[in-house]
Amino acid sequence: AHADGIDRTAGGSAEILIYDVTGRTIKKYSLTKGVNGKVTILNKEMPNGIYVYLLKIDNSIVSKHKFVNLK
């Protein structure tokens, strides 16, 4: 299990979605079952601003956080 308690060796689909403050989807990352790792978000690909990311497993939100992107 990861530090956040999510085990990608079990379960179905998993993804990380990044939204801007208007609710528009900015990025979507699919996570591979059975692979432990991390997602690197390149801030140069996104304008400065406030964003929300969701971690979804089997279409259920299991984690939601805000972050600020400043270049």
3D architecture notes:
The chain has strands at residues 14-20, 25-31, 49-57, 60-69. It has 71 residues and is an all-beta fold. Strands 2-1-3-4 form a four-stranded antiparallel beta sheet, with no helix packed on it. Strand 1 (14-20) and strand 2 form a beta hairpin. The protein is globular and about 35 Å long.
User: Averaged pLDDT, please?
Assistant: 81
How large is the radius of gyration?
13 Å
The secondary-structure element order is EEEE
- Number of distinct helices: 0
Detail the poorly predicted runs.
none
Strand residues, percent: over 45%
Q: Count the beta strands.
A: 4
Q: Major β-sheet, in short?
A: 4 strands, antiparallel
Features:
globular, four-stranded antiparallel beta sheet, 71 residues, 0% helix, mainly beta, single chain
